[in-house]
């Protein structure tokens, strides 16, 4: 489903962010990517989202080379992926409802579908009572749940969660991980990057460990070393 | 949804989002409208001062003419012949014939209070004044060639007898030349000032809108990452830019009413026959079109140009 084929990324200042990385992710997998800061986790995700181009190698999604797509096709591709960030990245000028509706509008969904699906997905993350609030009126945990709802609403093939619990307390961290697990159980690929040893150990799912731009370990049901 | 339905749905969403963004970012919107207001007022004032300049220059031009005074002995037929040949010159706009009698009547009227002159006229018994051709050229710089034509051509003498007494161009030459050059440089200066002022005010408006989009740059990158298309991201910003332009345009047109009314009396006494308030009212549609079109164009174009930078992801 997702295949990184000998991918390298060297920035103009000669720093090597990724060095000949190869791995694949199958449908229904839950993959955690771990490693110290600067290991190349964020670069990996940026390349996958076509925010940046690899210096060498290629990334395939369903047999399609992502970096051979034109702008319009990239937009369509991104609509099949849900993103969750450490800093939430909600649109501050829009209410909770509008933040989620925007993603559906961008995907060309009808008003009826939006009116029906937004309350439903907010119900899934237990935020129905905050539907008309602005992001500034929410706690960190609530913001992250809105972000997850936004990532989910277009029923994506892949959810990418980049350090989603980095700014959350243990209770909210637990909630977010449970939601991600539930999403994976329903058949969506989840790619999670994290520093949190507790999360990795409790998940018992596949772990890819990175260091200095290389994959140093790839365990089917790994632990955080 | 069909493609057509999708287009209208998207347009509706873009416009609605634009209005939401305008009203929710109250302070930013207010500041942008005020800056745009200054820009549009500058453009409006430029068009007013253009009109004032045009009118005062036209008045000055109108004051310049050349009088050809004929000898009292010259026959009316000869004079009319010269009038015809003058009228056939491309430089000449208008030639007015003032007969000897009319010249005398005008002279008497002018000196009605001067008994000594009137008495001297009576003493002479006959009309000492020659007929006059008053020549107006299309452009002040063309008087020289008109005067040369009169002086060199066969017009000057008829059967060896000079019938033209004098041409006042040669007495007024310096004054006419100076006035011509003043008019020309005022024209040029006005044009240059217009361009510079308009450019500066447009740049300031552009920069303000650029700042409002800079504030939203993180938002734009998030929109990109959820797969929104360029037009769908750009649209609401363009709508907001147009709203800035329309609101500022309406405010400008309204503010010009008391402003020109207040200045109306002063302009009327300074430039004879020109009242800026009546000029504004009688040219309202044209001025309103210019102001509104400038506002909408500056708003929309600034948004499109400013947002391009953040859409590269």
Automatic annotation (TrEMBL), chain A:
GO terms for cellular component: plasma membrane. GO terms for molecular function: ATP binding; ATP hydrolysis activity; transmembrane transporter activity. Pfam families: ABC_tran. Keywords: ATP-binding, Cell cycle, Cell division, Nucleotide-binding. InterPro entries: AAA+_ATPase, ABC_transporter-like_ATP-bd, ABC_transporter-like_CS, ABC_transpr_LolD-like, P-loop_NTPase. Residues 2-225 form the ABC transporter domain. GO terms for biological process: cell division. The keyword ATP-binding applies. The keyword Transmembrane helix does not apply. It comes from the Bacteria. Belongs to the ABC transporter superfamily. PANTHER family: CELL DIVISION ATP-BINDING PROTEIN FTSE (PTHR24220:SF470), IMPORT ATP-BINDING PROTEIN (PTHR24220). This is Cell division ATP-binding protein FtsE. It comes from Candidatus Zambryskibacteria bacterium RIFCSPHIGHO2_01_FULL_49_18.
TrEMBL record, chain B:
It is a multi-pass membrane protein. One of its GO terms (cellular component) is plasma membrane. Pfam families: FtsX, FtsX_ECD. GO terms for biological process: cell division. It comes from the Bacteria. It is found in: Cell membrane. Residues 193-312 form the ABC3 transporter permease C-terminal domain. This is Cell division protein FtsX. It comes from Candidatus Zambryskibacteria bacterium RIFCSPHIGHO2_01_FULL_49_18.
